[in-house]
Amino acid sequence: MTEYHMIINGQKVVSDSTFPVINPANEKVLAECPRATTAHLDQAVAAARAAFPAWSARPENERAELVHAIGAAIEAHSAELSNLLTLEQGKPPNGFAGFGAGFEIGGALAWCHASADLDLPVDVIQDNDEARIEVHRKPLGVVGSITPWNYPLMIAIWHVMPALRSGNTVVLKPSEYTPLTTLRFAEIVNDLLPPGVFNVVTGDGSLGAAMTTHPDINKIVFTGSTATGKKIMQNASVNLKRLTLELGGNDAAIVLPDVDVAAIAPKIFATAMFNNGQTCAALKRLYVHEDIYDEMCEALANIARSVKTGDGSEDPDFGPVQNKQQFDKVCAIAEDARASGARFLTGGEPMPGPGYFFPVTIVADIDDSTRLVAEEPFGPILPVLKFTDVEDALRRANDSASGLGGSVWSSDLKRAAEIASRLECGTAWINSHAVIQPDTPFGGVKESGVGVEFGRYGLEEYTSIQTLYMSKG
């Protein structure tokens, strides 16, 4: 069994205690991972703080070159990292529509190089005979990154690369369900960076909680559940930490009657089910006009019947749900829908044998108050809801504490844009869903988060403003 190490101040570190990492396809122990103590966390934070002055003073072009070098290192080890992702996360190498482990590696590469090319130029507010006023962006210090289990490597890149590019140092804690790819990534890039600039510690939620209250961490960036995000916000008040929180979503889509159902059904299916439905911005509530409701239900069901769920190492369309806690939640939500009288077009029952396998499930004729609609299932199950009036569909779509993304599907782009602008969400798509890219800001409203990621807007979240006023009088 491969031995895994934390990285603290450029050194490989073990712990007296470990915890098991489970392969979700067979429920067997894949590896033992070191369990960090608070002393390990203190060492990592102290190393990051000691490295900050030199790293933040490093010329911009040098930091950019090193972030590009990290991207090159990921690419050189892409096959190894992809295999680890399949084993610990469950996603197939390729998967349905290409949304497998290879997709995650490709996304990590794209965001790495895009982050390297970002810049935050000085903003000159005034320059006349009286004064010159400049606004500078300065790094915050030590950034604490807490990443989830659905995209362990790609989301680590989303957090860490803009932090490093803007001159901060980092202490990262991956999810205890999927720490291995992140630890191997840290080993790969360790020789590229000065000691202390990038540190990785591993453990459960108690370690993350200790990070959020640590007095020498200046910012927390977190991707995960809304409940945990609220606790982080409370804990961060100890030293008024800056926060970027990308939290849960329960994204709604509204499909107008003028669409070509046969043309859009595969797109809707893909954006609802990619990564086995375990994506914050996946389409999770589908509101379809009554004129095309039956046709859409049947089209989605036919696609669902054609796909295969199985062990990711065999490269099926979909792998297992990543962990037992989430698997049990998906099962419970499906049972609640069945008890409420909803109509299951496909799936709906856990698959027999070992592993956390739940088939792709399409549910029709379901009430908005049912858990499957009211809560984020975060699994391969989609409710299809009927509407008659678009105002009613908007009201129902917006009747949620979440506000990450939403979409409108129509052949009339102008009308679709007008409707989409009324969705209460951070990103509204037209004739697509969950399409993100490195240069476009992404974040939620309401209880789906605080702040944004990606591009210049995301980079600014890792800095503070300093106004420089030079009097000429």
From TrEMBL:
Keywords: Oxidoreductase
Entry-linked PROSITE patterns: ALDEHYDE_DEHYDR_GLU
Active site: 246
Regions crossing the membrane: none
Signal peptide annotation: none
InterPro entries noted in UniProt: Ald_DH/histidinol_DH, Ald_DH_C, Ald_DH_CS_GLU, Ald_DH_N, Aldehyde_DH_dom, LUC3-like
Superkingdom classification of source: Bacteria
Source taxonomy: Bacteria, Pseudomonadati, Pseudomonadota, Gammaproteobacteria, Cellvibrionales
Record-stated family: Belongs to the aldehyde dehydrogenase family.
GO molecular function: oxidoreductase activity, acting on the aldehyde or oxo group of donors, NAD or NADP as acceptor
Protein name per Swiss-Prot or TrEMBL: Aldehyde dehydrogenase
Domain (Aldehyde dehydrogenase) ranges: 17-467
